[in-house]
Amino acid sequence: MCSSEEADLLRLEEVFSATLARTNSLILQPLLSADPEPSDPCGRECLGLLQQLHESSQRLWEVTEQSLHSLRQRLHHPPSVGLETLLLLNSADHVLQAHMEYIKSYTDCVVVQAFQKVSKRRSEYWRSQWKKLQQLLSWASSEGSVGTTLCQALSQPLTQHVQKYILLLLSLRDTLDKRHPAQELVLHAVTLFGNLQSFLGQALDQAVATQALWYSLTSRVRDVLCTPAHRLLQDSQDIPVVVTPLRAERVLLFDDALVLLQGHNIHTFDLQLVWVDPGPDKRALRILTPEEELSFCTRDPRDQVVWQWKVTQAVCQALHGKKDFPVLGSGPEASVPPDCRCLAYTFRREGRLYQATYEGDWCRAKPHGKGTLKWPNGRNHVGDFCQGLENGFGICLVPQDSEDKFDCYKCHWQEGSMCDYGVCEYGNDEVYKGYFQAGLRHGFGVLDGAQQASQPFRYTGHWERGQRSGYGIEDNSERGERYIGMWQADQRHGPGVVVTQAGACYQGTFQGDKMVGPGILLCEDDTLYEGTFTRDLTLLGKGKVTFPSGFTLDGSFSSGTHKGLYTQGVLDTAATPPNPASTRKRQLGLGAFPVESRWQGVYRPFQDFVRSGCPGELQEALLGFHVQSSRELRESQEYLSCERSHPKDCAGSMEDILQELLQHREPQALQQYLRKALSNSRHPLGRLLRTLMLTFQATYSGIGANKHLQGMAQEEVKQHARELWAAYRGLLKVAFQRQGQTLEEEDVETRNLQVHGLLLPLILPSFYSELFTLYLLLHEREDGLYSQGITNLSLFPDTKLLEFLDVQKHLWPLKDLWLTSNQRYSLVRDKCFLSATECLQKIITTVDPREKLEVLEKTYGEIETTVSRVLGREYKLPMDDLLPLLIYVVSRARIQHLGAEIHLIRDMMDPTHTGGLHDFLLTALESCYEHIQKEDVRLHRLPGHWNSRELW
Amino acid sequence: MMAIRELKVCLLGDTGVGKSSIVCRFVQDHFDHNISPTIGASFMTKTVPCGNELHKFLIWDTAGQERFHSLAPMYYRGSAAAVIVYDITKQDSFHTLKKWVKELKEHGPENIVMAIAGNKCDLSDIREVPLKDAKEYAESIGAIVVETSAKNAINIEELFQGISRQIPPLDPHENGNSGGIRLGTQSLQAGRRCC
């Protein structure tokens, strides 16, 4: 059985279908046949809109026909076809969609007055159709214009149709049993069409209001604003507002833009980039846009509420991207627009961002979060923003005059300028890696000149507001020179040391990039000159030469008219030769650059970081980061992204690092922890060490491997150990603070013990190769003599050597050897005290001074054990016996560069050991070393009567 | 707890005069003997009270052979005191002693306390150096002098007590490192043990 309601529905659809067909042939087709002039863009636009209307009308007709078909099916085969097969019920959304499309096309036409405009062109024709048109309308004023009549003819049937749908569906529902399966479908359809009715009503009202708006505007303004998509939501003529600071006569809220009119000026604000805030009082409203901050004042609080609600809902709707259904403010999304949005915007106001386009995250009208900022000149910034400014990590490409050249800044930014650590690769191939402040190089940094440049250089040191200032090292590879010293305003200024490729070096005072006054010049042949000289190392003026022989020449020097050096002075050959080592081993730079302040710029960012409590977000600014090289970036400029391996991936967050610190406090664990941390360049301590190694290499490797710099180098290493320990303590303190505890202050003695006993051995390997080279050079001569000594002694058989060294015979360990006494006395070589010798040789297998000293202690133990065995009782060796034995062992161990080793151990040794056991052992070793250098040891030949014949 | 001062003392004198015997005797049967690491009889330590301080003697032996004399400065640098030993039965050894004194005056640390020990006083019947000579000489150079017998443990304690008395008390305002005076962590630990 089919209900009468269904039959009514069928009739309704039949009528609507017929009406659509009629309006189509009577109105739409004739309207579309009006062919506008090609020069009339407005006419073309209208025609386009009408075409769309025609299409959507067609779709609506098709849907109506489908619905009709489903109704007829049901009518003819009611038992086999259920109620749910009706299109109206099972595809109510589909039907709704067709209606909404039609409504959109129709209201578009209304807004731009398409019907009026097009019908005007053929008014004759329309007059002739007047009667037929009237028939289409159920109610119509006879005096309306053609345009109005057409408008009504295209909307009235729809309005009535929807209304009847609802009525019929409601009656249909009443006929159904509560448990009927189609019950819900019918209810759904009723709701939908009810909503559609509201939607339609609002759409028509908005369209009419928008259409009416155009009459109240000047033609210029109308031309700009009159687009089919605009719908007026609120007009300040209805509810007045006063806008400040931008004075506006009228405020129009459209569904996609907020428009402020000021004479002929139109300010349009995209609603997607509008943020609404309640004002300071109940009558005001604040509107935030990327470039304006407006205040809307209304006459009374109710008006404010209307404006605020309307603007807020309009923003929501704009962000949502489609019309709220059924009415404004009832969309599915939240009714409060989010503070953070992701959008693109091109800045229009003169200034830094003029014509730049920002694409990315916004928060309350400011770029905030990740985004890309592109300037029309090709400048490009990708990275983090905060409150409208670059803040956090970012990569900035700045194109240079010549094509294909970019300055690439990979930096941390703070409030729009570079701050903290950054890497800058310049278009001219220079590279700066270091710290910034307020956009300028500041603190520690390394600037590398281009490899191919005419004057290649590298500066490693301190900067102040973009200029070299403070302690710094500069290599000038063209001159083959390295300057180590103080800078001011990009010039050498203050004390400085210059080392040359040739091995000469000098120390003096610089001013304005030049050396002024007397200085100390040390030549590669160990000649010392104190006085004035030129940059090319020509002696000029008063001075005193000290020759390696000890002779001195005191006088004034000049380069004469011819080539060569002229001098007038006193040559003193009788002067007691000073300790030859005083010139040969003279150290430069000590005192001129106090070691505590030498690399302040490296320590300081770390200290600041710790002082501010190790904030996680600054971790990267301190540690640096890994990013693609600028070349890769240039190639993929279009897709410039600022991804980088996140520090979190590598070293864990600051939180974890601090947590780990607390867990490793026992000596053994602490040592292991520090060893791991120092070798990890993503750990703050490891990073600090890495930078210190860089400065150390920049100073002391290559040209800087000059023996006169050994003093500076060794005090620097010890200072680094102190600073690293302080850095560790700083981190520990923060870790304690986060636990709500305080770290006990340590006393000086504990600190010294940790610095020398714990940290120095851990960091020494990092500096060892440069440092040891300096010791090697410094002790080259002594090591040469020592080397001669051990070579000579190596010719001695064991017994001869023991005899030569005056070792008392009862201590000779010959018992161990299964030989005839003749053989024992002559043949045996490298057999006695073998265990001690082998033990001593291990001294070069470690760089840790304490381990070296322990090796020495063990060596003594071996000697004592051997002697005790020989004597058959425990024997405590007095020095009278020990020293010769030790000399024997040292000469047999044949350790190269023993002098360099000894002095390095002594310098790096914990000073608390002074006078103690280790000091004694080292002194004993040193005395052996000294003894072996002596002439009688080096040049002593085996007794003449000793020869092979006597052996047998 | 009493303050501990480490005092480096170096032993000088001909080979065979009994330098190390004196030290061995001094250090012997001392309670912390086993804990303090030593290098045979060449390096030993002993802590003794002195007034309200503890003096920890770090005793450095030297090789007495003539050929090693030139190495001695490495050993006596930084010493607070030097014990110069001669054999009362050998005039030569007293002669060597005078050379050491001269060298210390010229090249040794400033204010070094010098103590002269005439060893083997148990063999006074074959004495070659009269006590009077030694006393006069010591007086002339402002040194302590005692005749000792390492064998019979005569005057050994007295010798080192004499040195202790000669060491100027520590100026509380100056942790000076002159004369090898130093406060170390190790010494503090050692101090704890004996208190």
TrEMBL record, chain A:
A Pfam short name: PH_alsin
InterPro entries: Alsin, Alsin-like_PH, DBL_dom_sf, MORN, VPS9, VPS9_dom_sf
Residue ranges of the TM segments: none
Keywords for this protein: Repeat
Lineage: Eukaryota, Metazoa, Chordata, Craniata, Vertebrata
Protein name listed in UniProt: ALS2 C-terminal-like protein
Domain VPS9: 795-941
Coiled coil: none
Gene label: Als2cl
Entries under SUPFAM superfamilies matching the protein: DBL homology domain (DH-domain) (SSF48065), Histone H3 K4-specific methyltransferase SET7/9 N-terminal domain (SSF82185), VPS9 domain (SSF109993)
Keyword Repeat recorded: yes
Automatic annotation (TrEMBL), chain B:
Cellular localization per UniProt: Cytoplasmic vesicle, Phagosome membrane; Early endosome
Main location: membrane
Membrane topology qualifier: Lipid-anchor
Any one GO cellular component localisation term in the record: phagocytic cup
CDD domains, per the entry: Rab5_related
Protein's UniProt keywords contain Ribosomal protein: no
GO molecular function: GDP binding; GTP binding; GTPase activity
GO annotation (BP), single: phagosome maturation
Keyword set, alphabetical order: Cytoplasmic vesicle, Endosome, GTP-binding, Lipoprotein, Membrane, Nucleotide-binding, Prenylation
Record's keyword annotation contains Nucleotide-binding: yes
SMART domains: RAB, RAN, RAS, RHO
Similarity remark: Belongs to the small GTPase superfamily. Rab family.
Descriptive protein name: Ras-related protein Rab-31 isoform X1
Native organism: Mesocricetus auratus
